[in-house]
Every structure is written in structure tokens, then in C-alpha cells.
Specification:
The protein has helices spanning about 5-15, 15-20, and strands at about 25-35, 45-55, 60-65, 80-85, 90-95. It is of the alpha+beta class. The chain has one domain. Strands 1-2-3-4-5 form a 5-stranded antiparallel sheet.
């Protein structure tokens, strides 16, 4: 289901997905990596798409971020949520 970025973030927060990922309920995998095209970011900053999957493989959520060479997040400093499969199996994404 196509939803607004605000709606997707609200569903993500309500499901406590970050805390669950930190508890290792999900595995993180690199889906895409390329050089960052934002000129204000430090050299060697990478644009990453990360997938978080349940242990048996299904994708739960997908995020984009800019990772600086020092390990911090660039641009807004936050993960940019792109896709979510809620606990009830509903699929949500932004265009």
C-alpha cells in the first residue's frame, strides 16, 4: 500500500522496529551501495540501502542512509524508511 512518509514513520515507530532490530530479532543485509552524490558530505561517504529480515528470510523493512567514513550517518542523520511489512503482514511503501 502506498502511504505518505509520515504515515510510514508512524507505523514504524508504533511497531518498535528499531528496538527489535537492536534485540537482533532481524538480520541486516546490504542491498545496495554506491558513492554519495551530496557535495556537502565528506569524501568517501556511501549511499546505502539496508534490508532487515526475519531469521527465516522474509524482508521486514528497508531503509536508505548515508554512511560517513567515521561511521556516523550523514545528511539528516537519520535512517530514511522506504518499505515496511507490518506484523499483520500488510506491505507499506513510499514512492
Amino acid at each position: 500500500m502506498l502511504v505518505s512518509q509520515d504515515d510510514l514513520r508512524a507505523r514504524f515507530a508504533a511497531g518498535d522496529y528499531v528496538a527489535r532490530a537492536l534485540r537482533e530479532e532481524y538480520h541486516c543485509c546490504l542491498r545496495s551501495e554506491r558513492p554519495c552524490s551530496i557535495p556537502t558530505e565528506p569524501p568517501n561517504t556511501r549511499s546505502l540501502i539496508l534490508g532487515f529480515l526475519k531469521p527465516n528470510g522474509p524482508l521486514v523493512f528497508l531503509v536508505h542512509c548515508y554512511l560517513r567514513p567515521d561511521g556516523t550517518l550523514g545528511a539528516s542523520g537519520r535512517l530514511d524508511l522506504k518499505y515496511l511489512v507490518s506484523d499483520d503482514g500488510s506491505h507499506y511503501y513510499v514512492s
